[in-house]
Amino acid sequence: MLRCTDNSIYTGITTDLERRMDEHFAQGEKCAKYTKRHKAKKLEAAWSSEDRKLASKLEYYIKHLPKNEKEDIIKHNKNITVLSEKLDIASYKRIRLKR
Asked: Residue 43: how many CB atoms within 10 A of its CB?
């Protein structure tokens, strides 16, 4: 989950978090269309999963959360328990952020 300069939150998946962050922050041709229009400023939260299918499921459900629930996940360092009815949250591990 990326915080953008307009205070919006972008959610996506990647196999290489550091590389993808560099792409978003550089705003080159490999950044997402969203972060090209809404400049990324900070990595707020990230999770790891065993495979792309699980990552895509988590991305889908986070993208469909209301903004206030996304903010709760970020600000209160809550895990994704809000999604426990839809996902096996034990399949995901929150990553400690370095940025």
From this structure: 19
